């Protein structure tokens, strides 16, 4: 869950009760991201049970293995999986280095893809708990995170994303934001305010700003 945080920094899964043999939630998130990266690159028609026999999953508890099998196959069977399989282009784990007035901002976008109609979409995976009535502060963090990813992609590649989506794997839920060209001016202003509000070392890390 993402209940407890201080300022802009909060860790996903810090307050979860785990099995004694469970991998830390952060490591679970890394494995989930690896699965997503493979699916996007290979674009299989389906995800069979043999996929989950990979040694990558040995660090997980039985409950975690059940969760990752359910969430990975669920994602690939969903409208997201269909859209990615039909996409014109898809870039998983896309790294970026973006020059700002205070130095270089470094990070990685979980997935950027161009759908079958030609629209660009930014997708960010969340492996923590979904809260339909999440506090306003959490919602604002998510809105700003995905919005800044969209802005940075637009600035670096000259293509304006039409949507930014946060996908909560455990519940199969999403937060979706749509963008018009005018929205990117506002997002750039928000980024500039953030750069001067936070210590720049914190900004550069990225991980301490955004929950995974």
What does this structure look like?
This protein is α+β, with helices and mostly antiparallel strands and 212 residues long. 40% of the residues lie in helices and 20% in strands. It has six helices and five strands. Strands 1-2-3-4-5 form a five-stranded mixed beta sheet. Strand 2 and strand 3 form a beta hairpin. The longest helix has 22 residues. The chain starts with 24 loop residues before the first helix and ends in a 7-residue tail after the last helix.
How much is the radius of gyration in Å?
Answer: 17 Å
> Rough shape?
globular
Number of strands: 5
Averaged pLDDT, please?
A: 85
Helix and strand content put the structural class at alpha+beta
Structure annotation, total helices = 6
**Major sheet attributes:** 5 strands, mixed
Q: Beta-sheet strand percentage?
A: 15-25%
Brief rundown of the structure:
The protein has 212 residues and is α+β, with helices and mostly antiparallel strands. The chain contains six helices and five strands; from the N terminus they run αααβββαββαα.
